[in-house]
Amino acid sequence: MGKLLIIADLEGEKIAVPRGLEIADKLGLDTDVIAIVYAPLGKVAKDAAGRDAIKKRLLDERENAVQSQVDKHYSSGQRVKVHVYWEKDFVARVNKLCGRHEYQMVVKTGHRTESFAHASSDWLLLRECPAPLLILAENKWRRTAPVMAAVDLGTNVSQKKKLNMRVLTEAKALAEGMGEELEIICAVEVPVLLHELDLVDPISYVKQAKQDMAGHISELSQRLGIPEKAFHVKRGPVEKVIASRAAAKRAQIVVMGTVGRKGVKARLIGNTAEKVLEHLKTDVLALKP
Predict the structure, then answer these.
(1) Domain UspA, which positions (predicted)?
(2) CA 203, CA 231: separation in Å to the nearest integer?
């Protein structure tokens, strides 16, 4: 049986535990719930014994609070373990745990108001976490339904093709496990510069792109057992097409790939998954190649 890792919320509506347990129950996964505690104690207590006592009290209080939340939301028969860590850098802790255990996904409440350029925890986990990362929406659409996969069907890059397959495979399994329909969206973005210089006709460009994808869609349909009618190709910027389609269908989870750039290049260029997160009001499962 696989495992799922939930990062318990420290504040706010605390949606990670109930949503994570719901998904784990539907997919038949064991669950580890981790809670992070940290506070600088140097000025609070001068001696080590005093600091240790405060630290223990904070850890115990946090464990009791998270365990109470688990007890409230878990289903009968679910196997759930709560772990509390004294940790300043919780992203490093999560990455370490994922390196030790083969989690099928990590569940975390997203903070969409944070700027990814300022290296938020979401930003760091999208790039560094070795496991699939499910970022939950705090302000979610009501009455959500299908699972949606966002792919680049026009790519000729082998790494992106492999990522497409992984996204489709994971999304199909997730939809089946949760008893929901699967929707697949692909954006065709007309190059802005070519359009502005009248070097391409947008309508003809998109029409040709759709024709080029038709054979690939048919092949994927047969190979993965996904109906061709589940595939949808729309014109526009990737992040806006995905967000628009997800909103129209009230998708409960959007599954997509993320390239996981690092360093200055990542800060300047950003990432499609991050741009989508800024537009969506639903959960996003980000997968790496």
Answers:
(1) 165-288
(2) 20
Domain residues for 49?
Answer: 3-109
- DSSP annotation string for 124-168: HHHHH-SS-EEEEPSSPPSS---EEEE--TT---HHHHHHHHHHH
The whole-angstrom separation of Cα 49 and Cα 67 is 27
User: Residue 283's Cα: distance from chain center in Å?
Assistant: 7
- Dihedral sign, CA of 176, 178, 179, 182? negative
**pLDDT attached to residue 192:** 62
| Count of the separate structural domains present in the chain | 2
CATH code for the domain in which residue 80 is found: 3.40.50.620
User: What is the pTM for the complete model shown?
Assistant: 0.89
d(CA 51, CA 57): 10
What element of type H or E holds 279?
helix 272-279
- pLDDT tens per residue, range 119-168: 478 888 888 899 999 999 877 766 678 999 999 998 888 888 999 999 99
Other C-beta atoms closer than 10 Å to the C-beta of 273 total: 28
Within-domain flag for 119: no
Q: How far apart are CA 205 and CA 111, in angstroms?
A: 37
Cα–Cα nearest to 139, from 269, 287, 12: 12
- 248, 229, 153, 212: CA torsion to nearest 10: -120
Per-residue CA distances from 276 to 58, 70, 135, 176, 272 (Å): 37, 30, 12, 24, 6
Residue 141 domain-assigned? no
Domain for residue 25, yes or no? yes
